[in-house]
Structure formats: C-alpha cells, structure tokens
C-alpha cells in the first residue's frame, strides 16, 4: 500500500522531441481515438510489447523490496499475484484471495485463497506460502508502512486455504492494505532465487535481462482466461524515447508516459491515448502547526485565491480534473456532494485581512522537479495568489534536498501522491494527528475521531456517512490545497484493446489486454 | 607493428610505408620507456580525477542513503543503511578503500548492493561498440571529406565542405539525435527510433545502431573534417611537396605518399580528442535512443549519489580514453619518424 516515488521518478520535461514531434503529426485534427471496442470479440494470441520507465542502475527483482522502476513493478505484478487488487467499485477486488470476512470487532480478517491457484511449477498455493510472503514483506524496512497495524506474529495460516490477519486496532479497510504489494512467493524462497522464483500470476517469466523481460501466458491461471501469448516489457529511461518508440511502431504500449507525449500523439490517428483519471495528486501543503499558514483563515484564503481550472489547463495540459481540497478522489466513497470551491479573490482578501496576514512579506513556496508539472504548478500558483495580494517566491530544490529538508517540515511546499483511490489511505498516512507522514503537521481531534469511527464501523452505509464527515473536515480545515488531479496517461497502438483505466496501481493489470490484429 | 617505430626516412619516396627491415633494439626500448612513462602519468591523472569524482559527489546535497530511500523511511532505517553503505566514514577513507580495490578490478559495491563491475559488464561493451563505430565513421567520413575538399583549394566543394563542417560541429549531439529520429524514424520509417534489447542485453538488430552512431559521429565529423582539411593545407605548403609536384609525380601519389603521411600526426591527435567527446556525448545520445549503454547507468548513479558507480564509470572510460590517446601518440611518433 505504500506509495513512494515509484510512479513518478522519470517524469520527463517537455523538451526536445516533443515540440518538434508535435509538428509532424500530419493533418487530421479530428481525433477519432476510441477504437470501436463494443462489437469486437476478444481474440486470443499475439505478443504485446510494453514500454515502461525505469533506470538501469535501479533494477530490482525483489517483489517485497522497493521497486522504483515502473518496469520492474510491471514485471513483478504480471508474474506474482497479490491478495487483492484495485477495483473500480468497490476499490478493492479479489485476486489470490477470493473472499474475506472480518470479525465483529473488525480486528481479525480471514482471507480465503482462490480455488485452484497454483504456482507456475504446478504446486498449489497454500496458506503457508501466503503467510511466509506476508511476513517477509512485513519484515522489510518499509514493511510497517505497507501492512500498518499488523505485527508479523499476527499473520497466521488456518488450514491450507485460509490466511488470518489480526490488526492491532479495528480496521474496516484492511483488505485495501493488501492490494498490490502483497506479492506471494513460495514459502522459503531464497533471496538469491527471487529473480526466477515461480509466481502465481497470469504470466510466467521467460527471460529477464537488465530490466527487459519476456513473459509468456500462464495457461493454468486461476483468475480467468489470459488472451495474449506473451508480453515483452522494455525498459525506457526517458518518456520521450518511449513515445518515439511507440510512434515508430517498435512497441505497442507506452505505459505511464505523461501529458507531454499525449499532446504529441493526440494528432495521430493510429495512436490511442488512454487516460486513467485520478492518477496523481500534486497538492500544495500549508503548514498548520505553526508559521504564517497556521491560521485556518489564511489557508482558506489561499484555497480561494487559486484558479483551479487554469492550473489543470496549463500545468496538466488539460489532462486532469479540478480538485476540491480532498485527497482520495478516485474512491467510491469520495464526497462528490461537498460544494466545489471556486476562485473568490474578494473573499480571500477579506479573510487575509481578518487574519492579520502580513502582506508585505514574500513567502517561499518550495518545490522540486521530480515529476513533470510539479514545479510548473508552483510557479503558476505563485502568480495566481499575487492577485490576492500574497507575494510568493518559488524556490526549486534538488530532489534529495527537498525530501530531506523540506518535506514534512516546510511552511509552504508542493508534494505528490500516486494512489488516489482511497480517502482513508490519505487520512491514515498524512492527516491523522499521529500519522508518520503528516505533511502539514495537522492535528484535529474531530478529524481523528471521525477516522477512528470510520475504521471501526462495520456497516458500509454507516461508514460512508462517517467518511463524508471526515472529508468535510478535511475540506474545511486541513493543510492541503488540492487544486486538481492529473490523469495517468498511456499511449497505445491502434490494435491494443482492454488496457486498464484504473488509477495508480491499476495500471499494471494487463491480464485482460488483447490485440485486434 | 614491426614497421612503425623503425621508420625514419620520411622523405623516402619509393619504399612502402613502414618497411620490413629488422627492428633495432634501441628504438624499441626507447618506445617502451616512452609508453611506460606516458602510462604512469596518465594513471596518476586518472587517480586525481577519481578523487575529484568522490569529492564532487560528496558536495552534492543528500547522500546515497537518502537518494535511494523510500519516501517516509524512518531516520533509524536511514542511519542503519548509511552505516551499511559505509557513508558514516570519512570520504577520504572510502576513496582510499575503493582505490585499493581498483588494481584487482574490484570496483566496489553500488548503493543498491550490486557489484559495480557486474553493473558495468553489459552496458560498457555496448557503449564501446557505439563509440567505436562512431569513431570509425568519423575517421572515414572526415578523411574522405577533408581530402575531397583539399583537392581543389578554394573551389566550390572546398567551400561547401568547410561551411558544412563548421555548421555541424556546432550542433549538440542531442539536437542531431532528435533530428535524425524525426527524419529517419518518424517521417520516413526507414530506421528504428529507439534501441530495444535482446535476451542477451545487446541491441536487437544492427539497424538500431545506425541512428545513435550517426548522432554521435556527425558533430565529430564536422570537427575532424576541418582538422584534416587544415592539416592537408599546411602540409601542401611544405617544400618537399612542392619538390614532388615539380618532379612531376602523379597527383594521387603525392597525395597518398607525401601529403597524407605528413598530415597524419595532426589527424590522429584530432581523432584522439574526439574519443573523449564521443564517450561524453554517448551519455546524451543513449538517453534519446534508449541505448543500453553506460550513459543510463551513469545518469542513474548521479541521481543516487552512488560514488562507487560514478567512479567506476569514470575509471573504465578513463582507461579507454588513455588507451586511445596513447595510440594517437604512437601514430604521431611513427609518422613523424620518432622526432618527437
């Protein structure tokens, strides 16, 4: 569950090829992008060549390690299964765990393994294998944040087909924690064998070399029919090179390639632009604990001073949606009924006046160029709030410095998060008073109470009501200014069908892709 | 290589270049002494350079532990990893330890725990292949163009070649690379836009080498063509050339036996300097073409503040450049009849 810089390390600037390429699209403005998928019958066969970003120096084979390379993560996700996967509605769908049931106090969760699940070497998957894998995951340096509240000793097998997780506290959203990092390996797999360890996933590893891999269909996959014969994953250092490879027909999918490439490809009839909404949040963090933004009125003023539509249009090239200062926009439980905040400079000015905000000072907005658009968002924000009389100077920091010195500490800075399909995720990670990554230093007892109540409420409808209250408090008082959400963008050749459209981790679910050729 | 070092008669009109006579011992030992002297100096230079690399990485904000950490990793975990990577020891000590392993071929361990030698074992030969091809293309094309231009000094060809050479030598590799991709891959679809790798980690087809090689070679061709042209022009003013012309020797013979050998030292020096530029340019060009070379490893290592990897790349590249420079020196020594 833990979100890191994985998705976003490579974000390319919009230099070079893109600008030139935009000129060579050739004619046709009317983009008839969506292939007529409705009447097509899925076809079996073919090899899908997928480009994924990654750095040669950071290649890793450990499913429980830190995968900073998109390419590694993709390969691992196709070979190994997790207990649960992202879904559209609800946002947690079964995979290796076919079903799950909580105890009445929501502390003990029983996961029943899928019928007929086997490893690639033919041996059945047992609860022992799962328990061993989860414990291995839990014992990694970041294991505590991936399986929060679950001590290694509280992961147990019950018979061959059931795994029991006991949480330290009631946790209604526990199955969500088991999405997509709980990769299952055979019990007692040695570290040196990780690279060729059999998985349970829809594809088997044929070969792997320096971040590139060929995967072949697992005929016996318990999860349903896999249509592609094979998937070839190609590692790319830069989004530009990946887009070029797609435009030249050397690959079929350019995964998570970004808005710059999408703009380039928009004019090409033979290229599909696949948008995965709610993929990435890049909110502005205002420190609530102390400093110039500690007064809620000041934060409200900043939220009213921003021109959200202009931000989405300019920073994200329009590939995104306007945000309402609540994180977790992809969650089915996201409170769509809370009124959308819009720009109101007059109100912003009067709030600043009421708060006695010092308008003669220049405030620093710290940012980094880790991902495309982040620094740009800061610059545009600074010019927008100037119209409300606030002087903001953008300071770009080198990535390592930013995460070391500014993140979690700064008064005003940009941040970004890749998983936006869960309101609770953000609440627990970044907003509950004692959360480890409380970016704004926010402490709010009403919010904490709402969070605890939501986590301990079994009834779904009742929980949704509490979650709405939680989001209302977040909307009114938190340290976040979420102006918009960036789409995840993949490019695909005309013949590719069935690509995932879910945000975040959903992007690696390629088992239902097929080729219409 | 029997001939080169023994050749003394620069004005020897008849004999084939090189000659086949016995090898006088003094010349050989002189050469050995010369070579070992140069090697010692270059090794010292490389050591100083590597010290700079370690110092430079030290001066960058953050360190390998923070750069390779996950967002939200605890301070204790970071400290533990810092200790594991030896980052809590003084930089001088780490540099010393890394250097002592160097003669045995031990390039240390990366921040992600992999032996640096393993990390470089596949991409470096790929980069050498690319650089070597580019050097070869540079040599052939710039020699041809330079000779062609100097055939009629001041003529249309001469002016066109000189002008063209000046124009392209000013182009950065990545501009050339982008233009090549645009024209030969995306517009005409003649050549692949990027390099994809095979199961064995090398480029999947020879066609994928064409554009990266050209992108690297084009600016160097510009540079070297001018050098060849200038060296030939200088040489043609020499008295022995005039003598040869007055003697009525055929043009091509004057060219191949008198002009070119005279210009060779300068041409060799030009090419040798290009080697450094080629390997430097490879970092950029490899990114544009997704070429599986040392460039991506180096770029990643800088991001990771991974001193052993960066130093490893510098060391192997430095050795190659030293080798080429030495070769150029030998060519010069030979071509000028050992009068250096």
In DSSP terms (H or I, runs of 4 or more residues), the helix count of chain A works out at 15
Please outline the major beta sheet of chain A. 8 strands, mixed
Question: What is the 3D form of chain A?
Answer: globular
List the secondary-structure elements of chain B in sequence, H or E: HHHHHHHHHHHHH
Quaternary form: heterodimer
Return the average pLDDT of chain B rounded to an integer: 83
Task: Determine the N-to-C terminus distance of chain A.
Answer: 37 Å
Indicate the radius of gyration of chain A in whole angstroms: 23 Å
N-end to C-end Cα span of chain B: 19 Å
Q: What is the helical fraction of chain A, as a range of percent? A: 25-40%
How would you classify the helix and strand content of chain A by structural class? alpha+beta
| Annotation field: number of helices of chain B | 13
User: Unreliable stretches of chain B, pLDDT < 50, 5 or more residues?
Assistant: 1-21
Name the beta content range of chain A. 15-25%
Broad shape of chain B:
globular
Find the structural class of chain B using helix and strand composition. Answer: mainly alpha
Strand segment count of chain A: 21
Mean pLDDT over all positions of chain A: 89
What features would you describe in this structure?
The complex is a heterodimer of chains A (517) and B (340). Chain A is built from 15 helices and 21 strands. Chain A has 517 residues and is an alpha+beta fold. In chain A, strands 1, 8, 9, 10, 11, 12, 14 and 19 form an eight-stranded mixed β-sheet that branches. A four-stranded antiparallel β-sheet of chain A has the order 4-5-7-6, with helices on one face. In chain A, helix 8 (296-305) runs antiparallel to helix 10 (345-355) and helix 14 (445-455) runs antiparallel to helix 15 (460-477). Chain A is globular. Helices cover 71% and strands 0% of the residues of chain B. Chain B is built from 13 helices and no strands. Mean pLDDT of chain B is 83; it is low at 1-21. In chain B, helix 11 packs antiparallel against helix 13. Chain B has 340 residues and is mainly α. Classes of the chains: A alpha+beta (517), B mainly alpha (340). At the A-B interface, helix 1, helix 6 and helix 12 of A face helix 8, helix 11 and helix 12 of B.
